[in-house]
Write a structure and sequence with these properties.
The chain is of the alpha/beta class and 122 residues long. It has a single domain, classed as Transcription Regulator spoIIAA. It is 43% helix and 28% strand. It is built from 4 helices and 5 strands, in the order ββαβαβαβα. The chain has a 5-stranded mixed beta sheet, sandwiched between helices. α1 packs parallel to α2 and α2 crosses α3. It is globular, with a radius of gyration of 13 Å. It comes from Sphingomonas oligophenolica.
């Protein structure tokens, strides 16, 4: 599985990782897993935070980029969105996927978590 989704209820935060290449079928499964994770978060706490780590991902096919773009547009609003990416080349695809969405990009996981923590306090 290319995607991993984990809900952290205590912080009202989702952690998503994409590793390697994904297929359109992987994106469909990811959409189901994402909805289950969102449903597991406490609704009374409002919009959740999101850490999306693509540092281990390969450049994706155009079909996958398009499927992820549609999913990003349909996904619930977040209170803070940190994207972990260390690749300039992947950055072009990520800008297409998340165009118009407020995203904070970090070079590593720890920086992303620190930024999300600062947003929760502030």
């Amino acid at each position: 599985m290319a995607f991993e989704v984990r809900a952290e209820r205590e912080r009202n935060r989702l952690h998503i990782s994409l590793v390697g290449m994904a297929s359109v079928d992987d994106v469909k499964q990811f959409e189901l897993d994402l909805q289950r994770a969102v449903d597991a978060l406490p609704a009374y706490r409002g919009p959740h935070q999101l850490r999306y780590d693509v540092s281990g991902a390969a450049i994706q096919s155009q079909d996958v980029v398009q499927a992820l773009r549609l999913l990003a547009l349909a996904s619930p609003r977040t209170s803070a969105f940190a994207l972990v990416n260390g690749s300039a080349l992947a950055g072009r695809q990520l800008r297409r996927i998340f165009s118009g969405i407020d995203v904070h990009t970090s070079a590593d996981r720890d920086a992303a978590i620190s930024w999300l923590d600062s947003q929760a306090r502030g």
